[in-house]
Amino acid sequence: MNLPLHSQKTGPSDKSVAAPEAPPCAGCGRRGFFKKSLAVMIGGVVTLVPALAGLMVLLDPLRRKMSSGGAVKVTTLAALPADGVPRRFPVLADKVDAWNKYRNVPIGAVYLRRTGDGKVEALNVVCPHAGCFVDFSAERAMFLCPCHNSSFALDGRIADTKSPSPRALDSMSAEVRGNGEIWVTFQNFQAGRPDKVPVA
Ligand code: FES
């Protein structure tokens, strides 16, 4: 029997004519879920990056503290002239930060000279005025700074009162051990001030 078109029933296989179901609300459904997830991830990154940067700054002194140590072996007594003329040596040490350990990296340099039988004196090569490296003049038997003409005697004291350096060259503890090894407790100090303030 022919029924009018408006009264014909659609069967279960006739889905092409059914209207798609709209999501119950804006932002619902799969697309909404992805949007929300992306927003959460971006928010997390934006929050975490400054927080991590702050943490790094907070931990930095700790990391630097870990990298500065006690005495380090610099050379042997046999490498120093017997007449007390200073000789310059690099200072190498292991450095450790929060993530890595570096072996034998340069942390500075020293002038070493014999001051007596089995005794050694160590001076930092950095000028206390503004941080240039001083040279040793064998002719004048003194240290000279090429930047602003400070001059220092063999023991590090200021040689010329016109020197702009506010203090003598920085001395450090140097020890001769067992088989002639020279161990120096190396330290850098802040420039431009009359007292010795260690660089952290
Ligand atoms: S840095 Fe040495 S005199 Fe200025």
Note the main attributes of this structure.
single chain; 200 residues; alpha+beta; 4-stranded antiparallel β-sheet; 1 helix; 28% strand; disordered N terminus; binds FE2/S2 (inorganic) cluster
Describe this structure in words.
By secondary structure, the protein is an alpha+beta fold. It has one helix at residues 29-67, and strands at 72-76, 87-96, 101-116, 119-124, 135-137, 142-144, 151-152, 171-172, 174-177, 181-184. It has a four-stranded antiparallel beta sheet. A three-stranded antiparallel beta sheet has the order 1-10-9, with no helix packed on it. Strands 5-6-7 form a three-stranded antiparallel beta sheet, with no helix packed on it. A hairpin with a 6-residue loop joins strand 6 and strand 7 (151-152). The longest helix has 39 residues, at 29-67. The radius of gyration is 36 Å and the shape is elongated. Bound molecules: FE2/S2 (inorganic) cluster. FE2/S2 (inorganic) cluster is lined by residues 127, 129-130, 132, 145, 147-148, 150, 164-165.
Question: Topology, pairings included?
Answer:
Blueprint: H1 29-67, E1 72-76, E2 87-96, E3 101-116, E4 119-124, E5 135-137, E6 142-144, E7 151-152, E8 171-172, E9 174-177, E10 181-184
Antiparallel strand pairs: 1-10, 2-3, 3-4, 4-8, 5-6, 6-7, 9-10
Q: Compute the gyration radius: what is it?
A: 36 Å
Which consecutive residue ranges, at least 5 long each, have pLDDT under 50?
1-17, 52-68
What is the tally of beta strands?
A: 10
Ligand list: FE2/S2 (inorganic) cluster
Major beta-sheet overview: 4 strands, antiparallel
Shape: elongated
Total helices: the number is 1
Mean of pLDDT: 81
Strand order of the largest sheet: 2-3-4-8
Beta percentage is 25-35%
Query: What is the percent of helical residues?
Result: 10-25%
Q: End-to-end span in angstroms?
A: 100 Å
